[in-house]
Amino acid sequence: MAKVTLKDGVNWVGVVDWNLRDFHGYSIPRGTSYNAYLVIDDKTALIDTVKAPFCNELIEHINEITTIEKIDYIIVNHVEMDHSSALPTIVKLAKNSKILASARGKEELIKHYGAEFERVEVVKSGDKIELGKKTLTFLEAPMLHWPDSMFTYVIEDKILLPNDAFGQHLASSARFDDEIDQHVLMEEAVAYYANILTPFSPLIVKKIQEVVTMKLPIDIIAPSHGIIWRNDPMKIVNAYMDWCTGKVVKNKVVVVFDTMWGSTDKMARAIGDGIASFGIEVKLLKLRATDNANVVTEIADAKAVVVGSPTLNNGIFPSLSSFLTYVGGLKPKGKTWYFFGSYGWGGGGVRNMIKAVKEVGLEVVEPGMELKWVPTAEELKKCFEFGQQIGQKVKA
Ligand code: FEO
Prior knowledge:
This protein has helices at residues 55-63, 81-84, 87-93, 103-113, 182-197, 201-214, 233-244, 263-276, 292-299, 318-330, 349-359, 377-395; strands at residues 4-7, 10-12, 15-17, 22-23, 26-27, 32-34, 37-40, 44-47, 73-76, 98-101, 121-122, 128-130, 135-140, 150-154, 159-163, 220-223, 250-257, 281-286, 302-308, 311-312, 315-316, 336-343, 363-364, 369-372. It has 396 residues and is of the alpha/beta class. The chain folds into 2 domains: 4-245, 4-Layer Sandwich (Metallo-beta-lactamase, Chain A), CATH 3.60.15; 251-395, Rossmann fold. The strands form 6 sheets. The chain has a 7-stranded mixed beta sheet with strand order 1-2-7-8-9-10-11. Strands 17, 18, 19, 22, 23 and 24 form a 6-stranded parallel beta sheet that branches. Strands 12-13-14-15-16 form a 5-stranded mixed beta sheet, with no helix packed on it. The longest helix has 19 residues, at 377-395. The mean pLDDT is 97. MU-OXO-diiron is lined by residues 78, 80, 82-83, 145-146, 164, 224-225.
């Protein structure tokens, strides 16, 4: 592999997972990468590892630059297994290395990989290790993405290694932001934020403000997934601030639904037309044709979400149950939720969806709209008017 250098002595030694399409349950159409970094000075530090099946590739990349036995420090910024499952093999080869992690990181390493990791040395925010001319320092970042998470910063090179934060699930032969189509890059960056980091938005804002207060100069942000931000690192920081604080929300409505025999589909189209009649952008997404993760990405900049389910056995249609469970964990704030659906002899779909969404604290407009059997022309007109009411509120 051609050597990938961020700055003299700081190298990418990660791997690209070109064909992964399911990342612990959500779809990643463009694959991903597990970025590990090697800092070479009088002493050598490896920052993070990779997913276990790619361990040999990581070892090859390290050995192209140095020999793995010479690693003095292994920094574990985050214990989730996409970054640490190669670690047990790496520590056996890098026999003399010290392993550094946050206090929670040490606990989690022992629980994941056993008592061998009792030897992990705990670092906290502000601690430093001197490698020679280069110095590494640490910034704890709990819940970005797990309680153990921390950032590593190479002081002299002004490189921030924030692990999951600012990443993207994007497999590419490009490594840097100036080597890739910006639309693709930002599309994957927002999908990553929406599906992984949305629940932690207030913590992200606080962490960014903390870094700003510390006046850390940043030339490069090198996350542990996807592309490295060297041309314009503030682009992703500013984008995160906008996403986390809801600044990107626009006059857009997502209608997400499923259908058994077409009645809820007809309702969705009429409601969508009613919303669009106010000049508002509308997306109609049918579950079973669109993955939950893609719906959540579309919702990220929408003001309202309109959810439609047929009633099945007095309850919610299964694809909608899955969606509401998924979105209920992420809890995207600043959106208004509406509900509709069709039923046969007894309703329940709409009622149960409203209950589920209210329970997780999202803003629901009641009542929803429920119709029996196949909608008549008159009922479709009512659906259109329901859409108009939503459109009017969104526009206001
Ligand atoms: Fe990329 Fe939270 O692991």
